[in-house]
Structure formats: C-alpha cells, structure tokens
C-alpha cells in the first residue's frame, strides 16, 4: 500500500469516528429526555406524549363512582366494540403492595403490578408510579367479556378486594315505519335507520347483498348519517323509484344488530302486481282455497262417509 492510500484510509477512519460520536451523543440526549420525562409504557399508550401525566386522570370523568371499602361491587356498562375502564383504588396502600386483576369466571390472572399476564392484547392496566389508581383497560369489548373482574391486593396479613361487574350491551338498529314499504314508480323512497345508545363511526346500507352507500351507478341515491346526542340517525333516500329498486334493504352499523325493510315498487295503479310480488317474497306464503276446491273437498268427504256407513249396515 502506498503512502497516499494509507493517508486516505486514515482520513476516512477519522471521519467515521466523528460521525459515530455525533450519533451516539444525539441518541444519548434522546434517551435522557425520555428518562427524565418519567413516562411509563402505560402513559405512552394512553397519552402518546411526554411528561408526567396521569393516565387515569384523562378518563376519570367516565369512571363510575367507586366505593373504596373492601369487597365492594361496582357496575360498568359498555357497548360492544367500545373501550371499558374497570376502576380500582386502594388509597395509601397500593404504593406498598402489588395489585392484581383477576377474571373470575376462569380465575385467570390478567395483570400483576404494571405487567400483563395474558395473550389477549386488549387488556392493559393504567397506573402511574406513586398513585392509588389501578384501572383495567379493555379495548374492543366483546360479548364474551361480560362478567365479574376482581382487583386484588395482598397486604401480607390478608387480601383486600374490589369487584367490578362488566355488562356488555349490543345496540340494536331500527328502521322507522312498516317492515314492508309499497311505493309507485317515480315516487321517492325514504328509509330512516335509528341506533339508540350508540355512535357507530359509519352506517352501511345494503340492497340485497350489494352495498349502496357509494354506488356511483345510481345517482338517484343519497345517504346522510347524523349523530344526535346518544342516538345515530341514517337516512337513505332514492328518488324516481324504479321496479329494480324493489327488494330487501339492510341497515348495518358496526357492532350493532342490523335492521331490515322490504321495499316494493309497482307501476301506477298496478296494485295486483304489488300484492303478487309481496306473496312471492314472503318467507311463508299462504294461499286461500277457492270456493270450487272447497266444494269438491266436501263432496268427496261426503261420498266416503256414505260408502263407509252403508258398508257396516246389517243386511236383511
């Protein structure tokens, strides 16, 4: 190797060393800032920001009133798909002892301290070091989560417990008006779906098995969804109704029992066709017997009875 090659090699080595020192210093300052913020993994999940923030403080307004005595029971009600917060507090004691959350129906230990002992990633304990709050957070609640949960603290001389009954509710959608709607061609079809005690992020409307919310082929169709307090209203409007608009319409919000309505579109004055279509789409169609069929049935029955009667008459 020549002296020029050695010189360039030493120069590259010096620049690489300087670059590593700069990167190390920057990452060191970043780690130092993170440590000085006092954050835990829990507050990172809840707040997403730096700083000494109480993860329970942000949701304290939605927590039920808690009785701090031993063996108390608190009820928490939540809809399917929402986030449930199960409160637990042991004032002036939980900073000295470990607190655990137990699911009573299978006695599964969900958390101990700030650590989670379940493969179900929906569970997480909200706690800040030095506080008395040990709130259990359960995301994307399902019907199977319904039941009793125990917050337990072992003091060395005994066990203190607080119980939470989780009630999971599945909201139901309702389409206002009759379950069968009859309109004439050219009319406007208006269907209103109401969901009580739920605020779904969206509401899908289906015509048969086809979603119509974003159906560009039918510019006669419009969907408007509004939230009014604890109620959600979704209105489906179809102008200039046509025969092809007939069929089953479904209102399907997420995590809500859907609602259905049958729509029949007939030509002006064609009430017979509307009734016939109604009979064909019915799940259990029934037909009334005609007068002729009734008369024939009675005649046959009478003839059989006479023949049987005469057969058993004694002969002279």
Task: Describe this protein with a few key phrases.
single chain; 316 residues; alpha+beta; five-stranded mixed beta sheet; 4 helices
Summarize the structure.
With 316 residues, the protein is of the alpha+beta class. Helices cover 23% and strands 32% of the residues. The chain is built from 4 helices and 18 strands.
Q: Could you say which structural class the secondary elements and strand pairing correspond to?
A: alpha+beta
The percent range for helix content is 10-25%
CA distance, first residue to last residue: 144 Å
Q: In what range is the share of β-strand residues?
A: 25-35%
Number of strands: 18
What is the topology, as strand order, of the major beta sheet?
A: 1-9-8-3-4-5
Instruction: Please state the CA-atom Rg, rounded to the nearest Å.
Output: 35 Å
Order of helices and strands: HHEEEEEEEEEEEEEEEEEEHH
Number of helices: 4
Q: Averaging pLDDT over every residue, what do you get? A: 74
Contiguous uncertain segments of 5+ residues:
16-52, 277-316
Shape category: rod-shaped
Q: Can you summarize the main beta sheet?
A: 6 strands, mixed
């Amino acid at each position: 190797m020549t002296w020029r090659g050695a010189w360039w090699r030493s120069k590259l080595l010096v620049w690489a060393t300087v670059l590593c020192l700069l990167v190390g210093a920057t990452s060191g300052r970043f780690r130092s800032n993170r440590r000085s913020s006092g954050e835990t993994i829990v507050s990172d999940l809840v707040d997403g920001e730096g700083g000494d923030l109480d993860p329970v403080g942000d949701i304290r307004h939605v927590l039920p009133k808690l009785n701090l005595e031993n063996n108390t029971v608190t009820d928490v009600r939540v809809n399917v798909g929402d986030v449930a917060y199960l409160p637990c507090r042991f004032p002036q004691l939980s900073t000295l002892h470990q607190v655990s959350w137990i699911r009573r129906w299978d006695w599964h230990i969900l958390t101990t301290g700030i650590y989670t002992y379940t493969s179900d990633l929906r569970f997480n304990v909200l706690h800040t070091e030095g506080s008395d709050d040990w709130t259990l957070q359960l995301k994307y609640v399902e019907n199977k989560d319904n039941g009793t949960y125990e917050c337990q603290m072992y003091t060395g001389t005994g066990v203190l417990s607080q119980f939470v009954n989780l009630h999971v509710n599945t909201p139901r959608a309702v389409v206002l008006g009759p379950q069968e709607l009859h309109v004439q061609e050219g009319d406007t079809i208006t269907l209103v779906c109401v969901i009580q005690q739920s605020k779904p992020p969206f509401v899908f409307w289906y015509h048969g098995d086809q979603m119509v919310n974003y159906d560009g082929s039918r510019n006669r169709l419009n969907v408007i969804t509004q939230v009014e307090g604890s109620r959600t209203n979704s209105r489906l409007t179809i102008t200039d109704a046509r025969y092809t608009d007939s069929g089953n319409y479904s209102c399907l919000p997420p995590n809500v029992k859907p609602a259905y309505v049958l729509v029949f579109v007939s030509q002006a004055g064609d009430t017979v066709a509307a009734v016939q279509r109604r009979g064909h789409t019915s799940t259990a169609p029934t037909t009334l017997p005609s007068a002729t069929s009734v008369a024939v049935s009675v005649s046959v029955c009478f003839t059989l009875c006479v023949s049987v009667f005469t057969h058993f008459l004694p002969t002279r």
